[in-house]
Amino acid sequence: MTDVLHLGLESLRARITAVFPAQIRKCLDQLDDEQIWWRPNETSNSVGNLVLHLSGSLNHYLNHLIGGFDFAAITVARLGDPSPDAPKNIVVLEDLISIAVHISTHTGQILWITKMLHEGALDEVWMKTHKHLGGWRAT
Questions:
Q1: I need a surface site. Which of 1, 8, 55, 101 has the fewest CB within 10 A?
Q2: pTM
Q3: Secondary structure (DSSP) of 80-116
Q4: Domain map of the chain by residue range?
Q5: What is the pLDDT of residue 47?
Q6: How many angstroms separate the first and last alpha carbons of the chain?
Q7: Which residues contact 11 (CB under 8 A, 6 or more apart)?
Q8: Phi/psi of residue 82, nearest 5 degrees
Q9: Kindly report the CA angle at 45 between 44 and 47, in degrees rounded to 5?
Protein backbone atom coordinates (compact mmCIF):
# COMPACT_ATOMS: atom_id res chain seq x y z
CA MET A 1 0.00 0.00 0.00
CA THR A 2 2.89 2.37 0.73
CA ASP A 3 4.07 2.06 -2.90
CA VAL A 4 0.63 3.09 -4.14
CA LEU A 5 0.53 6.02 -1.74
CA HIS A 6 4.03 7.05 -2.79
CA LEU A 7 3.00 6.98 -6.47
CA GLY A 8 -0.13 8.97 -5.65
CA LEU A 9 1.84 11.57 -3.71
CA GLU A 10 4.38 11.90 -6.53
CA SER A 11 1.55 12.28 -9.03
CA LEU A 12 -0.02 15.05 -6.96
CA ARG A 13 3.36 16.70 -6.44
CA ALA A 14 4.14 16.70 -10.20
CA ARG A 15 0.80 18.22 -11.09
CA ILE A 16 0.66 20.81 -8.28
CA THR A 17 4.28 21.98 -8.54
CA ALA A 18 5.14 21.49 -12.23
CA VAL A 19 2.40 20.59 -14.70
CA PHE A 20 -0.33 23.08 -13.81
CA PRO A 21 2.08 25.99 -13.21
CA ALA A 22 3.74 25.32 -16.58
CA GLN A 23 0.36 25.35 -18.30
CA ILE A 24 -0.54 28.66 -16.64
CA ARG A 25 2.86 30.19 -17.54
CA LYS A 26 2.37 29.09 -21.17
CA CYS A 27 -0.98 30.90 -21.19
CA LEU A 28 0.47 34.05 -19.64
CA ASP A 29 3.21 34.04 -22.30
CA GLN A 30 0.51 34.18 -24.99
CA LEU A 31 -1.46 37.09 -23.50
CA ASP A 32 -0.79 40.81 -23.29
CA ASP A 33 -1.76 42.85 -20.21
CA GLU A 34 -5.18 43.77 -21.58
CA GLN A 35 -5.97 40.13 -22.33
CA ILE A 36 -4.76 38.97 -18.90
CA TRP A 37 -7.35 41.23 -17.27
CA TRP A 38 -10.14 40.67 -19.86
CA ARG A 39 -13.31 39.00 -18.58
CA PRO A 40 -15.89 37.21 -20.75
CA ASN A 41 -18.63 38.96 -18.77
CA GLU A 42 -19.17 40.90 -15.54
CA THR A 43 -19.63 37.80 -13.39
CA SER A 44 -16.55 35.97 -14.70
CA ASN A 45 -12.94 36.14 -13.58
CA SER A 46 -10.04 37.23 -15.73
CA VAL A 47 -6.89 35.15 -16.13
CA GLY A 48 -5.18 37.68 -13.84
CA ASN A 49 -7.84 37.24 -11.15
CA LEU A 50 -7.53 33.45 -11.37
CA VAL A 51 -3.73 33.58 -11.07
CA LEU A 52 -3.95 35.84 -8.02
CA HIS A 53 -6.64 33.62 -6.50
CA LEU A 54 -4.57 30.46 -7.02
CA SER A 55 -1.44 32.10 -5.60
CA GLY A 56 -3.26 33.16 -2.46
CA SER A 57 -5.05 29.86 -2.09
CA LEU A 58 -1.87 27.81 -2.47
CA ASN A 59 -0.02 30.03 -0.04
CA HIS A 60 -2.79 29.62 2.53
CA TYR A 61 -3.69 25.94 2.18
CA LEU A 62 -0.44 24.31 1.10
CA ASN A 63 2.15 26.58 2.65
CA HIS A 64 0.44 27.83 5.79
CA LEU A 65 -2.08 25.17 6.83
CA ILE A 66 -0.38 21.97 5.72
CA GLY A 67 2.88 23.31 6.90
CA GLY A 68 5.78 24.57 4.98
CA PHE A 69 6.67 26.14 1.68
CA ASP A 70 8.66 23.07 0.66
CA PHE A 71 6.04 20.74 -0.82
CA ALA A 72 8.74 18.04 -0.89
CA ALA A 73 8.50 17.90 2.90
CA ILE A 74 5.15 16.12 2.62
CA THR A 75 5.78 12.39 2.92
CA VAL A 76 3.59 9.32 2.64
CA ALA A 77 3.67 9.13 6.44
CA ARG A 78 1.96 12.55 6.62
CA LEU A 79 -0.91 11.64 4.27
CA GLY A 80 -2.96 10.23 7.14
CA ASP A 81 -2.27 13.18 9.48
CA PRO A 82 -5.32 15.16 10.54
CA SER A 83 -6.32 17.84 8.09
CA PRO A 84 -5.56 21.36 9.27
CA ASP A 85 -8.71 22.39 7.38
CA ALA A 86 -11.33 20.43 9.32
CA PRO A 87 -14.27 20.05 8.89
CA LYS A 88 -13.73 20.25 5.10
CA ASN A 89 -11.36 17.29 5.13
CA ILE A 90 -10.33 14.62 7.61
CA VAL A 91 -6.75 13.87 6.51
CA VAL A 92 -3.91 15.60 4.62
CA LEU A 93 -4.40 13.32 1.59
CA GLU A 94 -7.86 14.83 1.12
CA ASP A 95 -6.35 18.31 1.38
CA LEU A 96 -3.87 17.53 -1.39
CA ILE A 97 -6.58 16.10 -3.63
CA SER A 98 -8.71 19.19 -3.02
CA ILE A 99 -5.76 21.45 -3.85
CA ALA A 100 -5.05 19.55 -7.08
CA VAL A 101 -8.70 19.66 -8.16
CA HIS A 102 -8.89 23.37 -7.36
CA ILE A 103 -5.77 24.16 -9.38
CA SER A 104 -6.92 21.91 -12.21
CA THR A 105 -10.29 23.63 -12.44
CA HIS A 106 -8.83 27.11 -12.62
CA THR A 107 -6.01 26.02 -14.95
CA GLY A 108 -8.70 24.72 -17.30
CA GLN A 109 -10.44 28.08 -17.16
CA ILE A 110 -7.18 29.90 -17.90
CA LEU A 111 -6.45 27.54 -20.81
CA TRP A 112 -9.97 28.04 -22.21
CA ILE A 113 -9.76 31.84 -22.07
CA THR A 114 -6.32 31.76 -23.72
CA LYS A 115 -7.50 29.42 -26.47
CA MET A 116 -10.52 31.63 -27.02
CA LEU A 117 -8.31 34.72 -27.43
CA HIS A 118 -5.55 32.97 -29.46
CA GLU A 119 -6.78 30.13 -31.62
CA GLY A 120 -4.09 27.46 -31.92
CA ALA A 121 -1.80 29.16 -29.39
CA LEU A 122 -1.80 26.23 -26.99
CA ASP A 123 -1.94 23.22 -29.28
CA GLU A 124 -1.13 20.12 -27.26
CA VAL A 125 -0.06 22.08 -24.14
CA TRP A 126 -1.97 19.61 -21.94
CA MET A 127 -0.19 16.56 -23.34
CA LYS A 128 3.23 18.19 -23.58
CA THR A 129 3.29 19.43 -19.99
CA HIS A 130 2.00 16.15 -18.57
CA LYS A 131 4.48 14.12 -20.59
CA HIS A 132 7.53 16.27 -19.92
CA LEU A 133 6.90 17.38 -16.33
CA GLY A 134 5.98 14.14 -14.62
CA GLY A 135 2.20 14.18 -14.90
CA TRP A 136 2.32 10.96 -16.89
CA ARG A 137 4.65 8.03 -16.41
CA ALA A 138 7.29 7.57 -19.09
CA THR A 139 6.31 5.02 -21.68
A1: 1
A2: 0.85
A3: TSBPTTTTT-SBHHHHHHHHHHHHHHHHHHHHHHHHH
A4: 2-132
A5: 97
A6: 23
A7: 135
A8: -60, 140
A9: 140
